[in-house]
Amino acid sequence: MNFKIRPVKTDDRDDLRAFFIGVLVDTLLKEEIEFTQKMLDEEIEDKMTKFQQALDKNAVSEFFLAESDEQILGMVSVNKRGEFSQEQLPTISNDVLEIASLYVQPDYQHIGIGKRLLSHAVAFLKERGDEAYILDSGYKNAQKIWGHLLGEPIKVLPDFWEKGCDHMFWCVKIN
Asked: Residue of 50, 89, 132, 142 with fewest CB within 10 Å of its CB?
């Protein structure tokens, strides 16, 4: 499939909000995670706040979109480490950034878009001179993919979300 990856721009706001609603609802349903509208709204607002921060050229945050024919197929962000990551991985420098919010539209999953978004984010970090990144996930389906691509996680929080739902962290050196 032909698509391009580009940084977000201000006029992506509405399309990105709709994208987040669709992929988050799909993800939560596939993961069989019970959620309320309030939980969903809070997660979307968090993503939109990070999007707004990415528009600030002085910020460390970056959002990249995979798109085809002006349709968002996927996205990934690179951010400063959040409090959760800092608490769980206190021995890793806070200068190490996170690759986060990697989502792909349900109809376009499993065809390489996510892998290309991850590669793009890693290339961005490498160009900045970063030597490693953190990636974490609480979604079982994503954890299988990350385990396949990144190897064993450096930390697992067993039954973090509920029985059988772990949270995992990877710290990956950039070659």
From this structure: 132
